[in-house]
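Hello Y.,

Per our agreement to keep a running log of every chain we model this quarter, I'm adding this entry. I've kept the format consistent with earlier entries: sequence first, then predicted structure.
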Amino acid sequence: MRILTASGMMCALLIAGCARSYVYVRADIPQSIPEAKTALEELARNPIPFAYKLVLIHGWRDSSARWGNMVYWLNRCFNNADKMVTVVNYAGDLPIAELTKVIFDQYKISGTVDVVGHSMGGLIARQANRMGYAKIHMLFSMASPHEGSYLARYGVGFRELDDMTPGSQFLKELNADLKSRDFEVITYWMDGDWLLTNESSESLGGTNIILSPSPGKPPFRYTHNQLVMDERTIYHVIRLLRSEAVEKTLEDTARQSAQQPEAQPAVCPPAVPLDLPKPTPAR
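Predicted structure for the entry above:
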């Protein structure tokens, strides 16, 4: 029997509410959704290629439809998104470690990739990197419970929730080598997210982004999913991906130049004496 108890939910809401962190929006992120849309339109005027393949992994009991708005802007801001973006869709009741292998085998994901992981999707990405299914270059972790979610402990019978319970064996193993993390991390969290605290979301280190909910939007449930659809977040992700692409292009160009043999200086042939006719003496 699978149950998420009402009393447990209320308890988790109180815990999450008491543990809220200071809320801010970074100066390099548009302050409002209209401003973010304008900034995205500017980027879309000059689409460029991706540096690495990009994988989008949704959260628990969600679907790939969650990425609709992000995919729309990725297609506009990059000129090879159709070949470089993999949108994962999964379902099933499996431990996260097993689910990760199923996903990466099914979609044939390997090599160096960037990943945007929402909620449990961030844990799946880290597990894939840990097991060597793929090599993460940059992880955009959106409200992922890296230290677990208090709400997960009140779900009965869901094996994924067992793994996302604070102190679970899965999280202990996943976080055991946290200090040796070998990829860049940007974490995102929205004030009012009742599924997890910012402390759990940002525990990976790296850059931490905290957003305020959009005006007029309902709190609690909405905020956890808004991160994926919010143009402010999408702009920040795309801007970093484009910066990465430009940097990699410059590195590749420099590497190719270094591998080319140096041009030899031009050597002039030795002077050849001209066989000119002798002048005729004047009479």
